[in-house]
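User: I'm new to structure prediction. If I give you an amino acid sequence, what do you actually give back? Let's try with this one:
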Amino acid sequence: MAKPEMKIGEISKPRFEFRTFGQDFTAQAAIMARLSMPVPKKVWERESDEIYILSRTNDVNNTKIRDGKMDIKTYVQTVDGLEQWNPLMKGEFPIKASVLENDVFPAFKVDGLPKLDKDEYSYDEFIAMVDAHADLQAVKVHKQRFGYMVNDTICEYGSVLINGAKVVTINSESTEVEDIKKTMKDVGLEGFENLNYLQAIKRIIGMINKPLAN
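Assistant: Good question. You get back a string of structure tokens that encode the predicted 3D arrangement of the chain. For your 214 residues, that looks like this:
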């Protein structure tokens, strides 16, 4: 059976991903751009402002908010060092208390959750609850991303501000593990640590005492 064609900017079945963060991937980004097939103009360059909700006790659920919408993805498995994540829930503010109680706060895997005495909560009210919890932290993330397509994998090179700290990220993702591994070799990413956004942000804000990939 032929493998499904990857289409950048479109939803596919759950993908595997290699991503890393550091101070300098200029050489790898240049190779990625050279090897890329043409991609839609809408992904040439994209910018966004997002809020990630970090939990000291959770590394398997990735919660972010963009344009008033909440998106939670959950870790599924690692194959040959590549991570696979699936959507867990999507919500929009104002958000119902039942969604916070049954879906959002359980994803953080923390104790001492706030008492919910209203039917729904605004974005500001939700962030206030996060800020008040000792094991949760809302982190501002600004992304400037440049999209590519190499070896039928969706790739990007990005400049990222994490609470104002500037780092760069580079990635390759696909439903096909072998295509990602080939891209990593061709671009020069072999040997770099695979770091998802949760791990990178935790290292930058001090929740994890480890450096980035370079």
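You can read the tokens as a compact description of the fold. Here is one thing that stands out. The mean pLDDT is 94.
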